[in-house]
Amino acid sequence: MLERLKGLARTLKADLHALALAARDPRTPWTARVVAVLVLAYALSPIDLIPDFVPVLGYLDDLLLVPAGLWLALRLIPPDVLADARAHAAAQPARLPSSALGLAFMLLVYAALIAVLVSWWLRRTHAAG
């Protein structure tokens, strides 16, 4: 079981690396690039949508959102581009550092969530008062 999980983690890391390469390929459609950049930004961001210290839910986003986004992004990339990206990724060591773009993206998501919550709270308290 543990070996299977390690294998899945290696596959996920290799696919993220291939996705990063495919997103830069000019043959990749713009919709696939947008999805790829969003998935990579989230996956490589040092900040999660749900912080890891939150019991159960903290790891649930990593276990569901990243693989689901990766699956979608890989389906949007043409097969020949994906095959080339996977071959190139296999030929070089996978380096997936933290992403400054991912950090900025997640900070914007948090700011938007806070703005929505504050707006909702203000409308609710204004309507009650």
Automatic annotation (TrEMBL):
Domain DUF1232 positions: 32-67
InterPro entries: DUF1232 (IPR010652)
Main location: membrane
Parts of the chain that traverse the membrane: 30-50, 98-122
Membrane topology: Multi-pass membrane protein
Keyword Cell division: no
Record lineage: Bacteria, Thermotogati, Deinococcota, Deinococci, Deinococcales
Compartments where found: Endomembrane system
Gene Ontology annotations for the cellular component aspect, listed alphabetically: endomembrane system
Domain of life: Bacteria
Protein name: Membrane protein
Keywords: Membrane, Transmembrane, Transmembrane helix
Any matching Pfam family: DUF1232
